[in-house]
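Please predict the structure of the following assembly.
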Amino acid sequence: MILNELAITPELVAQHGLTPEEYRRILDLIGREPSITELGIFSAMWNEHCSYKSSRVHLRTLPTKAPWVIQGPGENAGVIDIGDGLACVFKMESHNHPSYIEPYQGAATGVGGILRDVFTMGARPIACLNALSFGDPKHPKTRHLVAGVVAGIGGYGNSFGVPTVGGQVRFHTRYDGNNLVNAMAVGLAETDKIFYAAASGVGMPIVYLGSKTGRDGIHGASMASAEFGADAEEKRPTVQVGDPFSEKLLLEACLEIMAKGCVIAIQDMGAAGLTCSAVEMGAKGGLGVTLDLDKVPCRETAMTAYEMMLSESQERMLMVLKPEKEQEAEAIFRKWGLDFAVVGETTPSMRFIVCHQGVQVVDLPIKELGDEAPVYHRPFVETPKPPVIRAEDVYAPVPLAETLETLLATPDLCSRRWVWEQYDHVIGGNTVQRPGGDAAVVRVDEGPKALAMTADVTPRYCEADPFEGGKQAVAEAWRNLTAVGARPLAVTDNLNFGNPERPEIMGQLVGCIRGIAEACTALVFPVVSGNVSLYNETKFAGEESGRAILPTPTIGGVGVLDDFAISATLAFKAEGEAILLVGATQGWLGQSLYLRDICGREDGAPPPVDLAAEKRNGDLVRALIGERIATAVHDVSDGGLLVALAEMAMASGIGAQLDASPSDIPAHAFWFGEDQGRYALTLRANAVAAVVARAQAAGIPLRHLGTTGGDALTLPGERHMLAANLRQCSESWLPAYMAGGPA
Amino acid sequence: MKAVVLVFPGINRERDMARTLELVAGAKPAMVWHAERELPAGTDLVVLPGGFSYGDYLRCGAIAARAPIMEAVRRHAECGRLVLGVCNGFQILCEAGLLPGVLMRNAMLKFICRDVYLRVERSDTPFTRGYNAGQVIRVPVAHGEGNYIADGATIARLEGEGRVLFRYASPDGMIDPNWNHNGAINAIAGILNARGNVLGMMPHPENHVEAAMGSTDGRGLFAGLVDHLERAA
Amino acid sequence: MKARITVTLRAGILDPQGRAIEGALRSLGIAGVASVRQGKVFDIELEGTDRGAAEAALKDAADKLLANTVIENYRVEVVG
């Protein structure tokens, strides 16, 4: 007999991450003391990860609708209509803390989880992206974390068989104890064959599918929302292990039974496994659920009800099947060698009832488990606005050419080839634009339609000014999609912050969300899915309060191209073409990489985003790509204009003769300032006049920068910057560092 | 050309391969499940595609090499009919003993996905008649264990009998350790069996058959097979 | 009966993983490590009590699947 009873003490309540007030709320709700299994269920449902209790009131302010949005936030993933009866299903989710404790498995299971979120909805995954933040390269753990996380992402995605086509990697000392792993998956489905979590019909069989249940990750969902202390290393046993082989079988089996019309509702067993999935299915469908744990396939012996309800074993699903199709579905799962067990049924009672060894161990009101979760209006203080740094006040310590070479070899600007070569980015045979460009482009089936995708955020801007930083993250994603010629459609947001119980951190969260909301509204770029990861901070020995990460609201953007052949890449295409800059430049050095990595200052206000200009400039660039007038396009962002031009030269081997900078802006500010809403593009010489006229008519600043040609970038008064040398600067740092070289 | 693509659990480039065969040969290949014991009657070409069969949890290709369908593949090869193994398919053929040698962990110990250059060593085989001897083609690789190794006698025999069909090379066709990303002995990327009807190769020609995807250099292999079978008929 | 099959690379076969581990041990300052070869261990539970038959079955398993004798050696132990 397995014992499911344990006296509830205040210590036990606290260990479950529930405050005394929250526990009182539970007592009021059920009118008695909960069983230990029930306490575990409340702790899972009411923690930050599942209930969004600190962020919910603010998330409600995000725009989530547009004519092409089929499903906004609240399901496993967001769904948008991309035309011709097809839908794009996508979401980004964090797996931060597990990836710190065990980088390979933490990152791998992060990828596995987000892939399941997408194929649970009936979509076949066609691409993955990720946004990774690591600590200072000099920190002794950083190399180990980079190696493990990258290998884990590759290990899972490569084996599962989805191309990993893009993302971000950054380094900053504020991620020293809390690296971030944000994984995004994009899938394709037919608009009339999307599957949801809501159960329907009384007495329908609830079926458990996939791998067996073990003691993995028990309290993983609670761990994912708890601040790290010195005992983080001891939490290792609770990290789940990924099995991409089983997940690939699960994908094929799920898509097969969906195609056969067997499925009424389906839910991935992710955080808090069986608990969250069963409660959501019932609550969303307005039904009760009864589970019999004796039927759950277990990998380990003598598992308690508590352990089964909270296990986070990977590669599992819960489904409500059409009763008449049960045998057909079971045969398909057996063919793929996966476990299949009827573990319960839907009921009219609106109760969540769980039995184990013939005894009822849980009897809770299903709707209230989710709906009555606490919602907090946490106090916050706005981040004080930093002063604007005038370009004239920033002294230029080194010549431009040397500055460029230095910047290209910094950890944040150098080539990420070492990372993305470990990801299979060509499987599927549809990757039109591979990693290294502004956005990845993946053909939809046989084309000509294609999807563009990107993941962006600039955390140092968010730290300095959360509102402008939030706007910038959205604008940057929109701009990257535009730069390949795509029509931006929607975003998924992955909000990574510190402890929301600290008003200054809460202020960052609130500010960023306000900025995201404003930019998404102005650019008609709604949020359709997302995830919040809070408490990303570490208490270092001898410190009073934790040290939080930089606020990192990662934005995953998706756009559509009607014909992938009409798109742009950043490489210069031919000699003798005109290079133009779209958008206004004032030489904004505050929070720039120039200021940080050349001058050693991390300060000032970040560049503001003028959303109206953003839209105007982007719409012009997209039109020029669509009309096949622009021959190469690149978004101007981190590192500024000269870095962008160097990237265009490095990608092609073709250089450029550049004009002198305007006399009213210091040269270093013109070339390395990070003013927003700008694109560098090339045109055939005979197309310039018409484009200049068009920009003028639309009130868009346009500036002639030079002409492509030769094998070097040349600037009046500076030594030649050979494209091959620049490439050497860009390509060397990361492989050398990972091989044990200097940070 | 009547082609068959084998599907083992965990294989993941079967769709890429089927699409390429259809594109180049004009007919959809049959997808044959690993648990089958017979190939469809009249099969000309059996393809073992890339992926991670059975998760590659024991050794790459080891478990798939013992699958029920592999007996039928062995008989097919013994009749002199064509077999092509790509990536995991190459590993399976080695584990099944249809090709000599083993694919070990890449010398750099990392999975590598990038375009590589291959020197085609011969054009007088069914698999390479679409190319010229000495031609350099660009195709992607995507593997963690592609480092070909065999004992000295086997290597000497492979080389002596002209059974190395593809080698990793520089863009101008030179054999150079800097262009041998996985450390394979003699830069071997693909080999033939003694009879000349079974080819195993690590790179993915099936991913470079459309200009829109960056290159059509892989097409020659499949077009050559179609041509060979048409002439034989 | 419990048995253990240990699979290791044959002498002379390059073992890049073993070499990387060797380097890591040295950099951790663990003294006196001359060389490292890595391998796999399979713990197997068998039905029946006939030791001879068990050893034969295990050898068969190693030859047919667990080891690739082109590059690997194995050792079978019936531990009781």
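Chain B has one domain: 3-232. Residues 219-232 of chain B form the longest helix (14 residues).
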